[in-house]
Design goal:
By secondary structure, the protein is of the alpha/beta class. Helices cover 35% and strands 23% of the residues. The protein has four helices and six strands, in the order βαβαβαβββα. Strands 1, 2, 3, 4, 5 and 6 form a six-stranded mixed β-sheet that branches. The radius of gyration is 12 Å and the shape is globular. The two termini are 17 Å apart.
């Protein structure tokens, strides 16, 4: 399980230029719901290994990226495929909702 720390310096290389779809979790350490979602993100990293890369963006450290993708509420998840961003999923309710959303995006 490899979860990337995404910054404005590595965003283009790790996300936009990735051959594998990248699920980006916009979060902050002070966000209780973000911390509760952490195990689901860890689960997804294992369950979708080889099909999906997981990256996390700390919005406190990377406010430019949060602004660029209009992240007003956290946790927000955005799937990037071939450099294009999906519609976000905000405050997912758990594995079931995340799995269904990923399937809608063509990830199974």
């Amino acid at each position: 399980m490899n979860i990337l720390n995404i910054t404005k310096e590595n965003f283009a290389q790790e996300v936009l230029q990735s051959a594998t779809p990248v699920l980006v979790d916009f979060w902050a350490p002070w966000c209780g719901y973000c911390r509760r979602l952490g195990p689901v993100i860890d689960w997804a990293a294992e369950a979708y290994e080889g099909k999906l890369q997981i990256g996390k963006i700390n919005i406190d450290e990377q406010p430019e990226l949060a602004e660029q993708f209009q992240v007003d509420t956290i946790p927000t998840l955005i799937l990037f495929q071939s450099g294009k961003a999906s519609e976000p999923i905000i405050a997912t309710e758990g594995k079931g909702q995340l799995t269904a959303w990923l399937e809608q995006q063509g990830i199974s």
